[in-house]
Amino acid sequence: MAYGRGALRGLRVTFRNMFRRPITVRYPFEKLKFAPGFRGGFRFDRDRCIACSQCANACPNNVITVKAQRGEDKKLHLTGYEMDLQYCLFCGYCVEVCPTNCITMTDQVALVATDRSSLWVEFDKGELPDPAKHGAHAAVNPLRAATGAKPQGPVGNVQPVQPPHAAPAAGGQAAQPGHREGEQA
Amino acid sequence: MSTRESLSLEPELEPRLKLVEAGSHAEGAPRTMILNMGPQHPSMHGVFRAVVELDGETIVNVRPVVGYLHRGVEKLAEARTWAQVIPYTDRLDYISAMNNNQAYVMAVEKLAGIEVPERAELIRVIMAELNRIQSHLMFVGSFGLDLGAYTPFLYCFREREAIYDLFEMACGARLTTSYLRIGGVARDLPEGFLPKLKELLKAMPDHIQEYNNVLTGNEIFQARTKGVGYLSRETALAYSITGPMLRAAGVNYDVRKADPYSLYSRFDFEVPLGQNSDSFDRYYLRILEMQQSVRIVEQAVKALEELGPGPIQAKVSRLLKPPAGEAYAHIESPKGDLGCYVVSDGGTKPYRFRWRPPSFINLQALPEMVRGWKIADFIAIFAGVDIVLGEVDR
Ligand code: SF4
Ligand code: SF4
What we know:
The structure holds two protein chains of two kinds.
Chain A: H1 5-17, E1 42-44, H2 54-58, E2 64-70, E3 76-84, H3 93-97, E4 103-105, E5 120-122, H4 142-145, E6 156-157
Antiparallel strand pairs in A: 1-4, 1-6, 2-3, 3-5
Chain B: H1 4-7, H2 14-21, E1 33-37, E2 49-55, E3 58-65, H3 73-77, H4 86-90, H5 97-112, H6 118-146, H7 151-171, E4 180-181, E5 184-185, H8 193-216, H9 219-225, H10 233-238, H11 244-248, H12 255-258, H13 279-307, E6 325-333, E7 336-344, E8 350-356, H14 358-363, H15 366-370, H16 375-385, H17 389-393
Antiparallel strand pairs in B: 1-2, 2-3, 4-5, 6-7, 7-8
Helix pairs in contact in B: 5-6, 6-7, 6-13, 6-16, 7-8, 8-13, 13-16
């Protein structure tokens, strides 16, 4: 067998692939959509939380701290909900157990920080950026999707407490559900 | 070349090193040189360090140094509930998270006597085999890359991406899937999963042909791998080597056949075997295994469609308390015989969690394979072991 025939066959494959459409996108400018149910950042709906602490108990890494007080009506009232995202495994256990579907996951992936303390997030301080501008999409809790207990609309969306300096990408797309945003941490 | 400090950990090499450094070429003095590769070396897979003793360009001995990625997962698991261990298993062999999940949940199910619904088992088989294809694609791509063939790497990653997209659809994550649960799987397959999977399965034979054309048939590639890194059948067995490395040595041992678990006894597939036990066989065997995995997934998809919708999760209490006792389950992971041993004291947490990582054990035979070869062959042999440091160091 003539030496070099194998190499030629390989070159033919390369040549044929040169005429295929590119399968990559130019990432920071173009973005692919994540599948629904992607386990990314978090969104917390304070009004629906019943402070049952099931999410905190399900978490393998003690990421979640639920602070609650017993009110005069003997019911638990949420006084604080904190997450230390540097320890989060993004396993989704907290979302799976939540009975009211108030903690959900979004398709936010830009959760990188240069400073550990900025990954400690308080959900009810009001300093979280407007979720409509930050990759808010119909967050999915697949285990509960069947029961129809859909979140009533975004309240908070996790963002490292560092100043969100990046402006949302092309305006029109910002509110489009399921579209990733250009935010950076 | 390493500094002396970094080598002071190697007691038996120290005296020789001193001689070499003093430039002593006295009569009878060993004329070898120590070369330190890794833990940060472009062709090292992860943070692995090899202390190579060279005589000229010939390898006299190798000492693998592992442990840079040690996180103490076995101990960490003792402080987690049974279900909470699953995300940690993802991070052992992070190239094949589904298989890791499977080994762990199978051990716990055995311990607690949980029956898994058939639909969940079929989904598990699909995921496990997809993960095997994905892991082997990673191997084929990086193996070529280590030998200087960059193009096949990109083709392999194209298909690997498609499999990751499928994982993302099914469980919401690409790498750290945490998809399997004790008694089932976390979510049912979403709409659109099976059509997309079938598309991939249909295209896969063509893609494999493409790898064969680009890499397998290439003369330079063959010259660099054929006959290189021979490991005899007896040595392989003596070192308890498993997985593709053992099968490349001609030993017919595949846990899916030898000790069928899940639903594997229902599927029709072959176990490819090598003849020459060299680097090329180790590479080509994985290509053949991908073809077999495609066959298994095809059959599993067909069975799943015939079965129709059904439960995907057995009834398992959220705070599982398996009866006191122990259980061992093992599966054929892409790297070899992956075992998980769990001990329960009847509580909510594992009393002991033990992992038998195939890559760690396969790595032990590295000195046997590289001795006598040139330093340039080291990577060609080492890459054929297909180690993942997350699993080696745990
Ligand atoms: S995703 Fe997992 S690790 Fe992260 S907060 Fe939820 S339960 Fe904890
Ligand atoms: S499980 Fe849900 S409702 Fe309960 S404390 Fe956590 S977030 Fe609130």
